[in-house]
């Protein structure tokens, strides 16, 4: 008995045109010649294609007649955004249609801060004219044609005001300013005041996990942690430069990111605030505003050097930089609730909408396309350390002033390192190694 | 240092992941392998040897594809794909037909000598004719005339690099990029080359010559990458195995040798005289000489003693080739084209994305675009193709040297602009004079070179004339007997 097999392909063709043609995949490497070279080529093409399709700017919301000072995206409704400007105007925007829904002349002077409550029913705004307005959000949207709508409640403050932040759980909000004040809805006067030293506090934020913890950045270059239950501050740390802004990590609420005037962002662990856990360096001018994404893995920072940068929470350098020819100093940034879009309000009276992943398609995507993008992403991940691919993936076009400034900084850094090395080599025994950089940035820790 | 540790740990993890998933997918694929084969049982203990022994037991589809076409015009060269065969007769008869559906695609007469034919991307084909290489449409319309390769006798096509390689009788090897029409490289190989074959696994070309040496070539380097002394006589024909680890050669002294390419040592040999060789996907070797074809089953493992099948064609065989992913052997002879069944020679489980011939129209259109986008650069062709994308483990010193050399090359290529002097007098007239001087100097150098070339040519011609006149004088002076001796 002799037994052998022969190939018969007659059963392969489909019976009707409505049937799909079968696709056969043989993972045996003998059937795939030159597999390594082809895979590398595919990864190279994938990185290049990503650059070709990188169009992060989606649109701008224009209507303000003075620079935009603060914006906040709604936590519960993806299409709403509140912004305050230098001339005291507050606008509520509908993002998909790029229109203003409600226009309010809220304050006599600049709007210092805007904040939504957790359930989205209330909006709080603080102005430089020492008043705090509390609005009912659904009511605002109903009576949208009335620009002189009265707020639900108006609170008057004795001292000047900074930004305002609404409590995550209770009907309370905290304001920064000459003195940190905690307000309740029912009381016309603040229920609590914090003051440490004579300097005013510029930015104040509630912790997302504990409604009794407030963190603030003050004008004497400090970052202070307050406890509402104990009615006092816990500790503070003084840095080399003053910080403008603050954000809590929503997923790891023991970490905060502060944006400093020396163009770096610092991540601190509030339990051990003597030293930053991470320094994020990429801006070349003061960081005006920081905001965390709801995933807690990324944060966006807008700075005085007219760019916004997206940083991974644990890396020292930015993943992405967005800049525009017409975009001036960025005053505030905000992440959308689904972590897909970033909003930036700047001095040129516009609010810009950017994509978080610059080459991602907006809208519904076919399942086949999703599979293809996942495959390409895996390829890029596999070859990301390869120098040719790394160079292409890392490359970002920057305006000339940024490039020059960066090169300058690089030179300064190199010369500093060279001098240190030379000092170390030429003065054995006498030379004291400089402190690690994380320690260098902090001046003092005060209990 | 800590950074390197983390990086190396990550890379190790990645490598482990890819390897383990590869093994898993292969295991699963083996279990889920679709049934493309039909098993045939014969109640006979004798080995198969002749197709007449088992023809009646074969399924009908296979019997239908046993072809014997009578052709007229001269010995034919062959190129087969899983759908079509391309035939080029020596006196100019060119035909392409779909052997599966028994349809003629195109047939025409070129009226000059044809040396070789090969199928190219997207169902086009290239014919090496006496005047130059022509590329034809699937319908037989002439699309390109490649003038740069002169009198090519052998063609090979590298599918993933879109390179057409043409070998001359003088040994001139040219690589041409089909998508751009650019000649990538051209150089001299051996003056007495007999056969040209591609190693499908790493796109290296092997050329065998009359001295019995087989040399490997890539488009980057002008010289051979390696060479092996294979036979005492000339290398008549050669093939590579599918995974690129074995090379099988026939010599004019009458042996077939199986070489292990990783160690470059002889694995096994058999004293059989053969002029043509073909190796199937699964390792069945077919050797043709005269009208006979002998096939061995386990040649790569080393068993060349008992032949698997024998076939007798109707006339002298010119070219043989196995059809990929099928159980057929195609042969072109002096006056016929024949196709016969060789069971268990083809790989039944094909991959749709690798074989555009086995796809339907829409899939083929997609692959056309995708192949062009993923075209490999010719610089990536090397003997060790698996090293691409892996960590470069050469020493730091060598890498630094290479980087230095690159920087120096770039610096030397840069054109140095004359700086505008800001101090002292800086007249425009003077600057322009300097520029003109430079230009004149460059031109002078050029003229000198041209002159010296012209002088050299003239001198060579003069000498030639002198030599010729001398010969003529001598011939006049000689008697007729001496003349015959000198000439013979």
From TrEMBL, chain A:
It is found in: Nucleus, Nucleolus. GO terms for cellular component: small-subunit processome. WD repeats lie at residues 61-103, 104-136, 280-321, 330-364. CDD domains: WD40. Residues 357-442 form the Sof1-like protein domain. It holds the Pfam family WD40. The keyword Nucleus applies. Keywords: Nucleus, Repeat, WD repeat. The keyword Nucleus applies. Residues 406-447 are annotated as: Disordered. GO terms for biological process: maturation of SSU-rRNA from tricistronic rRNA transcript (SSU-rRNA, 5.8S rRNA, LSU-rRNA). InterPro entries: Sof1, WD40_repeat_CS, WD40_rpt, WD_repeat_DCAF13/WDSOF1. Its main location: nucleus. It comes from the Eukaryota. PANTHER family: DDB1- AND CUL4-ASSOCIATED FACTOR 13, U3 SMALL NUCLEOLAR RNA U3 SNORNA ASSOCIATED PROTEIN. Belongs to the WD repeat DCAF13/WDSOF1 family. This is DDB1- and CUL4-associated factor 13.
From TrEMBL, chain B:
One of its GO terms (biological process) is maturation of SSU-rRNA from tricistronic rRNA transcript (SSU-rRNA, 5.8S rRNA, LSU-rRNA). It is found in: Nucleus, Nucleolus. Keywords: Nucleus, Repeat, WD repeat. It comes from the Eukaryota. Residues 307-385 form the BING4 C-terminal domain. WD repeats lie at residues 228-269. Residues 413-428 have a biased composition (Basic residues). The keyword Repeat applies. Its main location: nucleus. InterPro entries: BING4_C_dom, WD40_rpt, WDR46/Utp7. Residues 411-435 are annotated as: Disordered. Pfam families: BING4CT (PF08149), WD40 (PF00400). GO terms for cellular component: 90S preribosome; small-subunit processome. The keyword tRNA processing does not apply. SMART domains: BING4CT, WD40. PANTHER family: WD REPEAT-CONTAINING PROTEIN 46 (PTHR14085:SF3), WD-REPEAT PROTEIN BING4 (PTHR14085). This is BING4 C-terminal domain-containing protein. It comes from Paramecium octaurelia. The lineage of its organism: Eukaryota, Sar, Alveolata, Ciliophora, Intramacronucleata.
């Amino acid at each position: 008995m002799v037994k052998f097999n022969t190939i018969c392909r007659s059963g392969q063709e489909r019976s009707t045109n409505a049937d799909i043609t079968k696709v056969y995949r043989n993972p045996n490497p003998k059937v795939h010649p030159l597999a390594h070279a082809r895979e590398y080529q595919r990864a190279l093409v994938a990185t290049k294609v990503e650059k070709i399709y990188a169009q992060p700017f989606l649109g701008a919301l224009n209507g303000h007649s003075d620079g935009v000072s603060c914006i906040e995206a709604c936590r519960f409704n993806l299409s709403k955004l509140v912004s305050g400007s230098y001339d005291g105007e507050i606008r509520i925007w509908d993002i998909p249609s790029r229109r203003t829904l409600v226009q309010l002349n809220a304050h006599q002077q600049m709007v210092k801060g805007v904040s939504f409550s957790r359930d989205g029913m209330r909006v709080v705004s603080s102005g430089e004219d020492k008043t705090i307005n509390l609005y009912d959000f659904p009511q605002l949207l109903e009576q949208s044609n009335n620009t002189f709508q009265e707020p639900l409640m108006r609170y008057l403050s004795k001292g000047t005001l900074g930004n305002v932040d609404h409590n995550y759980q209770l009907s309370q909000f905290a304001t920064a300013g000459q003195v940190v004040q905690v307000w309740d809805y029912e009381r016309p006067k603040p229920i609590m005041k914090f003051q440490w030293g004579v300097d005013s506090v510029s930015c104040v934020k509630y912790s997302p996990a504990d409604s009794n913890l407030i963190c603030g950045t003050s004008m004497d270059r400090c970052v202070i942690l307050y406890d509402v239950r104990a009615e006092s501050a816990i500790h503070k740390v003084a840095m080399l430069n003053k910080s403008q802004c603050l954000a809590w990590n929503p997923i790891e609420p023991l970490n905060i990111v502060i944006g400093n005037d020396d163009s770096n962002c610092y991540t601190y662990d509030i339990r051990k605030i003597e030293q930053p856990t991470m320094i994020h360096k990429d801006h070349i001018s003061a960081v005006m505003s920081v905001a965390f994404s709801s995933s807690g893995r990324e944060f966006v920072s807008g700075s005085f050097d007219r760019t916004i940068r997206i940083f991974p929470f644990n890396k020292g350098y930015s993943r992405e930089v967005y800049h525009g020819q017409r975009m001036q100093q960025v005053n505030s940034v905000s992440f959308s609730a689904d972590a897909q879009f970033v909003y930036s309000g700047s001095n040129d009276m516009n609010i810009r909408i950017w994509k978080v992943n610059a080459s991602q398609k907006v809208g519904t995507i076919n399942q086949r396309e999703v599979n293809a993008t996942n495959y390409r992403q895996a390829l890029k991940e596999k070859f990301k350390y390869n120098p040719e691919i790394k160079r292409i993936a890392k490359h970002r076009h920057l305006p000339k002033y940024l490039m020059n400034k960066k090169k300058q900084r690089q030179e300064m850094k190199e010369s500093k390192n060279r001098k240190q090395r030379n000092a170390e080599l030429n003065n054995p025994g006498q030379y004291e190694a400089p402190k690690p950089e994380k320690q260098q940035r902090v001046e003092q820790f005060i209990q | 240092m800590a950074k390197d540790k983390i990086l190396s740990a990550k890379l190790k993890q990645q490598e482990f992941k890819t390897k383990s998933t590869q093994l898993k997918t292969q295991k699963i694929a083996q279990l889920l392998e679709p049934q493309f084969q039909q098993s045939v049982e014969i109640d006979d203990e004798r080995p198969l040897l002749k197709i007449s022994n088992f023809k009646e037991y074969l399924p009908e589809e296979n019997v239908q594809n046993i072809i014997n076409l009578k052709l007229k015009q001269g010995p034919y060269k062959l190129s087969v794909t899983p759908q079509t065969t391309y035939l080029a007769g020596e006196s100019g008869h060119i035909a392409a037909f779909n052997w599966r559906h028994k349809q003629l695609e195109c047939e025409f007469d070129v009226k000059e000598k044809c040396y070789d034919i090969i199928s190219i991307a997207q169902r086009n084909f290239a014919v090496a004719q006496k005047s130059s290489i022509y590329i034809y449409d699937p319908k037989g319309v002439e699309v390109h005339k490649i003038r740069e390769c002169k009198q090519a006798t052998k063609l090979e096509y590298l599918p993933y690099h879109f390179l057409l390689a043409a070998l001359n009788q003088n040994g001139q090897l040219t690589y041409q990029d089909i998508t751009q029409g650019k000649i990538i490289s051209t150089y001299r190989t051996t003056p007495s080359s007999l056969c040209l074959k591609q190693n499908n696994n790493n796109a290296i070309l092997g050329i065998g010559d009359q001295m019995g040496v087989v040399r490997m070539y890539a488009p980057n380097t002008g010289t051979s990458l390696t060479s092996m002394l294979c036979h005492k006589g000339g290398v008549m024909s050669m093939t590579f195995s599918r995974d690129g680890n074995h090379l099988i050669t026939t010599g004019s002294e009458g042996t077939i040798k199986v070489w292990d390419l990783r160690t470059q040592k002889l694995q096994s040999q058999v004293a059989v005289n053969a002029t043509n060789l073909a190796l199937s996907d699964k390792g069945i070797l077919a050797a043709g000489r005269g009208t006979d074809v002998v096939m061995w089953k386990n040649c790569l493992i080393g068993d060349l003693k008992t032949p698997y099948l024998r076939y007798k064609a109707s006339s002298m065989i010119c070219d043989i080739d196995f059809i990929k992913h099928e159980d057929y052997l195609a042969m072109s002879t002096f006056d016929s084209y024949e196709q016969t069944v060789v069971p268990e020679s083809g790989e039944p489980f094909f991959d749709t994305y690798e074989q555009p011939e086995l796809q339907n129209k829409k899939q083929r259109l997609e692959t056309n675009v995708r192949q062009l986008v993923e075209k490999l650069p010719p610089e990536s062709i090397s003997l060790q193709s698996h090293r691409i994308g892996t960590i470069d483990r050469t020493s730091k010193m060598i890498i630094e040297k290479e980087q230095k050399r690159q920087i120096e090359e770039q610096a030397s290529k840069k054109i140095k602009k004359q700086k505008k002097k800001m101090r002292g007098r800086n007249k425009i007239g003077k600057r322009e004079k300097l520029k003109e001087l430079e230009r004149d100097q460059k031109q002078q150098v050029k003229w000198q070179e041209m002159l010296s070339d012209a002088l050299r040519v003239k001198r060579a011609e003069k000498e030639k004339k002198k030599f010729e006149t001398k010969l003529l004088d001598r011939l006049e002076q000689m008697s007729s007997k001496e003349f015959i001796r000198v000439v013979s």
